[in-house]
Amino acid sequence: MAEPILETNASTTYAQPSADGHFGQFGGRFVAETLTHALDGLAQLYADYKDDPEFKRELHEDLAHFVGRPTPLYLAERLTESLGGAAIYLKREDLNHTGAHKVCNTIGQALLAKRMGKPRVIAETGAGQHGVATATVAARLGLACDVYMGEEDVHRQSLNVYRMKLMGANVIPVTSGSKTLKDAMNEAMRDWVTNVDNTHYIIGTVAGPHPYPMIVRDFASIIGQEARAQMLQQVGKLPDVVVACVGGGSNAMGIFHPFINDPDVALVGVEAGGHGLHTGAHAAPLNDGKVGVLHGNRSYLMSDADGQVMETHSVSAGLDYPGVGPEHAYLKDSGRATYAAATDDEAMEAFRMLNRQEGILPALETSHALAWVVANAPSMSPDQTILVNLSGRGDKDILTVADIDGITL
Amino acid sequence: MSQSHQQNPTGRIAKKFAELNGQNKTALVTFITAGDPGPDYSVPAMHALVSGGADLLELGVPFSDPEADGPAIQAANQRALAQGMTLSKVLDMVAEFRQQDDSTPVILMGYLNSVLAMEEFAQRAGAAGVDGLIMVNLPMEEAGDLREALSAQHIDLVSLVAPTSSDERAQAIADSASGFIYYVSLKGATGSGALVVEDVAQRTKYLRSITDVPVCVGFGIKDAATAAAVAQHADGVVVGSALVQLMAESGSVEEAVTRLQDATAAIRQGINA
Questions:
Q1: CB contact under 8 A, B166 and A37
Q2: Helix (H/G/I), strand (E/B), else coil: A126
Q3: Which of B263, B252, B247, B205 has the alpha carbon at shortest distance from B230?
Q4: Which domain does B13 fall in, by range?
Q5: Contact at CB, A33 and B139, closer than 8 angstroms
Q6: From CA B131, how far away is CA B156, in angstroms rounded?
Q7: Of the N and C termini of chain A, which has fewer Cβ atoms inside 10 Å?
């Protein structure tokens, strides 16, 4: 890859968040006073290390030799042909070690934990990909690791639960509330507030209190940095559209961020439409939510007239979350990005297409981004290009899909 | 010394602390979750707490995601929500309580998303007779707008100070504090762990040296003995999870009233001794 184009000029005109962690009216730090000290410490540590040559060297070493980066940019020829419109390029994040982009963030945060001298890490997980990615780096660095996971998700994602256990992590089923990702995050916050002296909380998405949305975005941005350079090198131009699925929104922020200052590149996030936006049974706060505060930040949130957080639904555990990262809220309101939704059925159809036409098994989360492509590529012209963040692979979802097909494996 | 403490000198909270100060007594602050275990429990329970010896009442506003609360109060939130509790109904309860008690301060405690969802929250709370608000997830940096809206209604936004707050930060919090300062006695969720009285004493001594605003201590005060020990070093002690647990075990409003009154009286006696 050509060196000069690897770095983007994102920081020259787009500079979010503010020093105190706000993206316009969004973001911020809405936590118990007990955690303020730890968050200040983390923000300071990150400021000290993010441009430190030794830290960067260690991070890039790990990304190259442990994770296997850069990941390829791949032209999905048969899919492009069958849809008959824009050329579809896949950023192959499914080829990361552990099977998804999540490990880029956990490696970065684990290196920060090491510098803080904290012997224990905790994480929340929905689909289990972030839990696996955290367990992986904990094993590698010899850190104790506890992963909170909603009881529902423990059942839905039993393969990932066992993977975490194999790597020495302790998986703690969460039985409060709706027993899914949001409750796992509540429980992780309670753990952190109790054990803040010896524990680093590795948040798995671009949400949580400042500085997490910024830190997670920065570590995930390697996706967009590589993809931008690869587009220029392999295709000779930037994409017309960049598409990614959005739950909390880390894979989307990771691929969007290096393109924010490219005004001709459209950024499209795809939320989980569940049974359909009109049914209320979905996980699409940017499409059908209102501004609220949960898990340490102000953003769009699915909450009712009394401010109670609503139960969400998605076929994909990783998108089954009522909130969304505050930077997405900012990009939505500023008009720089747009946010669509794909239903369970549309995602399943796209999932099947990619398997059949490209021999790639995408995660159900990722399949939501692919559903947007299936719906929109045909109306674009063949000289246009779509860059899709193929955020993770779907091995973990095989049992879920078989179940939908009425097959017991 | 705090200027904002002077902002609301005629409110029920300031009056109550002045009165207790005159009697050389430490305030007993009690917490229950509104609408738990059912909507008809709360107002009788509030009166029972007062007759048992509580000086200030904290009323929890049920929230779906109480991330700073331990198992006892989490369960209370879920019971109350299952019974259809809302912030609107909490305010109705306060108004009903006020018909018979116009002097005991009532402080609502909960999470920011609840009050964000209610238009004109401050006005409605003021009209209902609410004296203070504790927002668990609202550190001082984010509190400006709400503090201003509440202040116009003579409602105190009670600030929390944690064991992890630096001296400098504690000073900044104290400078903008009104009503009282809530010192969180341990690192953890509500009702967790065991607090160390010496550590609490050291911190409250410092806090009381930098501000005139009364300092109350909560989180982890489970019984009369701990309350009595902490009371030596604070202007008030907060008892919550233990009372919530007791409500959960009560089979009727009458039983809850009797047990709350007895439990409060025992804690009050311990503090006075």
A1: yes
A2: coil
A3: B205
A4: 4-272
A5: yes
A6: 6
A7: C
Q: At what angle do helices B87-98 and B121-128 cross, to 10 degrees?
A: 30
A to B CB pairs, distance under 8 Å: 116
- Model confidence, pTM: 0.95
| ipTM entry | 0.94
Q: What are the residue numbers of the active site of A?
A: 102, 124, 391
Share of chain A above pLDDT 70, in %: 97
**B161 with A305: Cβ contact below 8 A:** no
Instruction: Give the up-direction half-sphere exposure of residue A7: CA atoms within 13 A in the CB hemisphere.
Output: 5
Q: Which of residues 186-205 of B touch A (CB under 8 A)?
A: 187-189, 192-193
Query: What confidence tier does A200 reach under pLDDT thresholds 50, 70, 90?
Result: very high
Rounded CA gap, A409 and A405, in Å? 11
Cβ-based contacts of A189 with chain B (< 8 Å):
67-68
Q: Which of residues 232-261 of B touch A (CB under 8 A)?
A: none
Residue A10: pLDDT band (50, 70, 90) is very low
CA dist., res. A210 & res. A27, Å (int): 7
Residue to substitute from A124, A182, A299, A308, interface B, most B β-carbons within 10 A: A308
In this complex, do B164 and A28 lie within 8 Å of one another by their Cβ atoms?
Answer: no
- Rounded CA-CA distance B254/B243 in Å is 15
Q: Would you state the pLDDT for residue A7? A: 44
Contacts of A176 in chain B (CB under 8 A): 74, 78
In chain A, which residues have their Cβ closer than 8 Å to the Cβ of B160?
32-33
Joined tokens for residue B207: 């806090």
What angle, 0 to 180 degrees and rounded to 10, lies between the N-to-C axes of helices A102-116 and A33-49?
A: 100
pLDDT tier at A294, thresholds 50, 70, 90: very high
| Count of domains for chain B | 1
User: Cβ B64–A37 below 8 Å, yes or no?
Assistant: no
The answer on pLDDT for B245 being more than 60 is yes
CB-based contact A193 B188, cutoff 8 Å: yes
Q: What CATH number should be reported for the domain holding residue B193? A: 3.20.20.70
**Given a cut of 50, is residue B112 above it in pLDDT?**
yes
How many Å apart are CA B187 and CA A194, to the nearest integer? 5
pLDDT tens per residue, range B26-68: 999 999 999 999 999 999 999 999 999 999 999 999 999 999 9
Tens digit of each residue's pLDDT (9 = 90 or more) over B139-198? 999 999 999 999 999 999 999 999 999 999 999 999 999 999 999 988 888 777 778 899
For every residue of A202-266, DSSP letters joined together read: ---SS-SSTTHHHHHHHHHTHHHHHHHHHIIIIISS--SEEEEE-SS-HHHHHHHGGGTT-TTSE
User: Does the pLDDT at position B6 exceed 50?
Assistant: no
Strands (E), chain B: 27-33, 56-60, 106-110, 132-135, 156-161, 181-184, 215-218, 236-239
The model's confidence at residue A152, banded by pLDDT at 50, 70 and 90, is confident
Query: B167 near B205, Cβ under 8 Å?
Result: no
Of A35, A176, A307, the CB nearest to B74: A176
The answer to whether B255 is a known catalytic residue is no
